[in-house]
Amino acid sequence: MVDLETFRQETRGWLEQNCPESMRTRMVLGEDIAGGRKRTSTNPDAYVWLQRMAEKGWTAPTWPKAYGGGGLRKDEFLVLLDELQIIKARPPLVGMGISMIGPTLLEYGTDAQKLRHLPAIVRGDLAWCQGYSEPGAGSDLASLQTRAEDQGDYYLVNGSKIWTSGALHADWIFCLVRTDTQAPKHEGISFLLFSMDSPGV
Ligand SMILES: Cc1cc2nc3c(=O)[nH]c(=O)nc-3n(C[C@H](O)[C@H](O)[C@H](O)COP(=O)(O)OP(=O)(O)OC[C@H]3O[C@@H](n4cnc5c(N)ncnc54)[C@H](O)[C@@H]3O)c2cc1C
Question: Does residue 188 sit within a domain?
Fold first, then answer.
């Protein structure tokens, strides 16, 4: 195990060599990468930065290495954040993959789901969006009406989602759907992941 001061020196040296100059300023509108290719960054350096950080697993520094993450301990993660801040480095990857569905899968996903989705999220391969709100279900999310029927090897989803930030650029959605219409309002809701390129979306 590398001691913390050594880790800091190695991290500082690596960042010095690998963080492009133009990534050492405040984020510029349109230059961020939120995953996927439907919306591209206007700064090519952003892709260099993303690729280098993703190779080290540092787009998700504390996620296990088995899922593409950096496998850092909390104290190492704090050192990394500190060193990134010192050079004013931008986050290499933003969006709902890295911030929302990734951590959720880490906590609740099956091994198959983790292996399928987490490494792709770390690399920024896909953009994700969040499908919770509906025209009649905002703060009172349990009013959601979108239904998903189990058809054996697929779910048939019917309903409307609204306020879905980034939907037009998203490749996948994590979506709340009603799978048991007989259950009390706050139950019978499932968390479905599917491609935004699915027929009918
Ligand atoms: C910029 C933006 C991005 C968003 N992105 C997403 C997204 O990506 N995915 C997604 O699923 N959703 C998204 N949302 C939706 C958001 O998460 C909320 O669910 C939604 O804005 C709240 O629902 P509503 O607008 O229908 O308001 P309502 O739920 O109808 O609320 C209207 C007003 O009534 C008040 N109110 C509601 N219930 C009560 C109560 N019981 N007691 C007292 N007051 C109450 C609320 O505070 C509010 O002032 C986004 C919203 C915004 C503004």
Answer: yes
